[in-house]
Structure prediction request, 143 residues.
Amino acid sequence: MGKSTFRPRDIINKEVAGIFGVARLTDKARAAHAGEIGSYKYGADSEQDTAILSFLGISAEAFQEAAVRIDHDVKLGAWILDNCERSSEEVSKFNRKMKVWWQNKMPQDEFSKRRRQLAQQAENRRRSWRQRDKWWWHNFFRT
Prediction:
C-alpha cells in the first residue's frame, strides 16, 4: 500500500459492521497509522469521517487504535457494534442518509457506472469463492 496507490473503499461499502462508510474509515485509519494515507484525510480533518465517528460515538483515536489492533473486518465490525450502542433501526436510517448523500454528490452517469463496477466486483468475489469451494470439494473427495 504505497502512498501514491492507496485508495480506501467506497463510502457505500457496508462490509464492516453493516454501516456505510465504516469500511472506508477503517482503510483510512489503518493507512494514517502506517503513514501511507497520501492525500486522503482521516478523523477531524475529514467531514465524512467526522459524521461517521459522531454517529458511532467513537473517537477517531479509539477507532484507529481498534482498526490497527483488530486486523479482521468482521471482528472489527463486532467491536464497533459492541461500542457504538446504536440500534439496527438507527443504522438503517444512517445508511439511507449516507446513500442519498453519496448519490447527490456524484453525477448520475458516474453514479450508475460506479454501481455497476461495485456489482461486478461483488460478483467476482462470489465466483472466486465458488471456485475455491468447488476445487476443495473436488480434491477432498478424490480417490
In short: The mean pLDDT is 86. Residues 55 and 125 are 30 Å apart (CA to CA). The longest helix spans residues 108-140.
